From TrEMBL:
GO MF terms, alphabetically ordered: nucleotide binding
Domain Gfo/Idh/MocA-like oxidoreductase N-terminal stretches: 3-118
Organism of this sequence: Nonlabens ponticola
Domain of life: Bacteria
Protein name: Gfo/Idh/MocA family oxidoreductase
């Protein structure tokens, strides 16, 4: 079992602590939080060992799970990597691309693994169709959330949209050609509503919308490719896969047939996969254990997190030009 420690014991940090303790892949050593009063209280209430000395926690562990506010990600990650320990770090990887690239350099220098907590990659619905998304040419995503002041320390792009940026980059096998965007600040100092258009070198276009002041929640993405339409509902964990094939010579009574102007007939059919129910956060942590123990590439490595951050920063830069 890998010895694990957690940095940051806020809302998400407590979830990570609980899951690491439950996992049979990790031995939870303890946690560190800058608020020692909160840390000692959590230790008394839930039994996790609180370390008031971060260096001692890092020294006692094989892997550190960084769940601090984003502004501390760079310093926290740097400290972990320089100690030669494996790093799991929540999204976004850092505040700037330069900071993220420094973490990549350190991980290579000290020959340790790094993974970024883009949890939607492990969403049951998205996992069930990820390999079926093949050369999509148009993508549309909507991520709407009710207002929560806990996430307003960063732009809605880094708070919400970056989930969809990472998911899209994982299925579009092409470099980004251009980015355009617009954003509106309603309550926060940074945009609360944003729309972005990403064009890729291979001609694919992705249109992303994110809002954190919506009256209802929505987390959906739709992928259009030559042979299929694939819809993913990240919130309800439901998918819809609609495919087309050459129509049979003698269609059945319930077959859905389309005929174009040239007389070519196609049959529409549903190809929905089975969806296995899992805990996405636990899965991302345990697949990281796999990567460490088997010396393989983490599913969302530091380079992936940096690429998503780079696109997110291009979107934010577009806001400044409006």
């Amino acid at each position: 079992m890998l010895k694990a420690g957690v940095m940051g014991a806020g809302h998400l940090g407590k979830i990570h602590l609980k899951l690491l303790q439950q996992s049979d892949r990790y031995d939870l050593i303890g946690f560190y939080d800058t608020d020692s009063v909160h840390g000692k209280q959590l230790e008394q209430e839930l039994g996790y060992k609180f370390y008031d000395n971060l260096d001692e926690l890092i020294e006692a562990c094989d892997m550190i799970d960084v769940v601090t506010p984003t502004t501390y990600h760079h310093d926290s990650g740097k400290k972990v990597l320089e100690a030669g320990k494996h790093l799991f770090i929540e999204k976004p990887i850092t505040v700037t691309v330069a900071q993220a690239q420094e973490l990549i350099t350190l991980s290579r220098k000290h020959n340790v693994k790094g993974q970024v907590g883009h949890v939607e990659r492990f969403n049951d619905a998205f996992r069930s169709v990820h390999d079926r998304i093949d050369n999509p040419m148009f993508i549309e995503s909507h991520r709407l959330a009710e207002f929560n002041p806990r996430g307003t320390d960063v732009s809605v792009v880094l708070d919400l949209m970056i989930h969809d940026i990472d998911a899209i980059l994982s299925v579009v096998k092409s470099e980004v050609k251009s980015v355009s965007a617009s954003g509106v600040s309603v309550i926060s100092e940074t945009p609360d509503i944003a729309n972005a258009r990403i064009e890729f070198e291979n001609g694919c276009v992705a249109n992303l919308t994110a809002s954190r002041i919506s009256l209802k929640k929505m987390r959906k993405a739709r992928f259009f490719q030559r042979d299929a339409y694939i819809s993913v509902d990240f919130l309800t964990k439901a998918v819809e896969v609609v495919r087309m094939k050459d129509a049979p010579e003698t269609p059945g009574d319930f077959d859905m047939i389309l005929q174009n102007a040239e007389g070519i007939k196609k049959q529409i059919y549903f190809d929905n996969p089975d969806i296995a129910a899992t805990n996405a956060i636990l899965m991302e942590l345990e697949t990281f254990a796999d990567a460490i123990e088997n010396d393989t590439r983490p599913i969302v490595n530091l380079e992936d997190g940096t690429r998503a951050l780079d696109v997110a920063m291009q979107i934010i830069e577009n806001f400044k030009q409006l």
